[in-house]
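Extended Data, record Proton-coupled amino acid transporter 2
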Amino acid sequence: METEKSNNKENKINGDTMVEMGEVNHCSRPSTSGENKRSGYLVTLMHFIKGNIGCGMLAMGEAFKFGGLYLTLCILLYVWLISVYNMHVLTTLSKKVQNRLQTKRAPSFGDTVENAFKMSDKWIFRSTSNYIRKIVFYNILITQLGLCSVYILFISTSLQKLLFQYSYEINIQTVLLFTMPLIMVCASLRKLRFIAPLSTLANFALITGVITIMYYSCSGPSAENVRYSYAKWSELPTMFGIIMFSFEGIGLVLPLFAEIDDDKKFKSNFGVLNFGMVAVMMLNVPLGMTGYSKWGEDVKSSLTLNLPHDHELTQFVIIMMILGIACSYALQFYPGAVIVYNDLEKSYGPFNHPAIWDYSIRICICLVTCK
């Protein structure tokens, strides 16, 4: 009797889950012949690395200033290990949900969490699954669009300072107005495979800028006021926040996992996840340590601010960083735009002209991030 009740209970859970996934699939964009194409290892790796490096990387010098060399390094490694572990847990859970529901592609972030709750034996988890999905979706939306706003601010302020070196005094609003067409073009890219060239260009530009900054950091005498431990307890939360901000690609893990042609290439020992996170650490740690060792307590919130602005090489670094961050906008914008579109289509759709609606929604969201 108990076995029969258990089976009925499981069938009910699976049935509810299948209905919910059907609703989600119904609310997604109409499939086209191009949507069946998957990304390969290198394309996904470019996306993954780009998704985890950005403005936060340039603030690592200040993180080492607040926490000291040894403590910051230990916390950075700890956060890195936790991030890698959580990403593996997330992709494994997504794969289990996909196998349970027998879908062709891995579910999204919110759908993975929702269906994991629905498959639970505890009624309290099943009853809150829909709320959990919304909480996850809106948190990702706020995170990704917040990153986009930071990117736009970095591009505008850096470009303004670069123009100031050539005696062009332009206010930040005017600079932002001139950069809007480029930002809107990046925001209009609807498929990850179209964003791949931008990710490759962004990685090249950012790595070139990082190498040049490290050249400045390693040349000349080092600072004498370098600390190996923290100075004030009150500065440790800021240090931790900078470290957390430097790992900014958690919202892209499942979209990339769903797009790769073979999920084993993503989760294996030398897969996209492990190799990409090692590459991110190899950029963050040397950049932060050498930057703090060079400038000590005078290190700025962005290492580009410590470079001598009258040098042509410095201007080259700023141009590379502007280019890299601008090309990164499309990738960070992608998850938020998909969430908003699917949510609106679920409430008011299906739309007669989905492409027009999608582009219109993307432009509106882009304008919001620029305000």
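Summary. The chain has one domain: 42-219+226-369.
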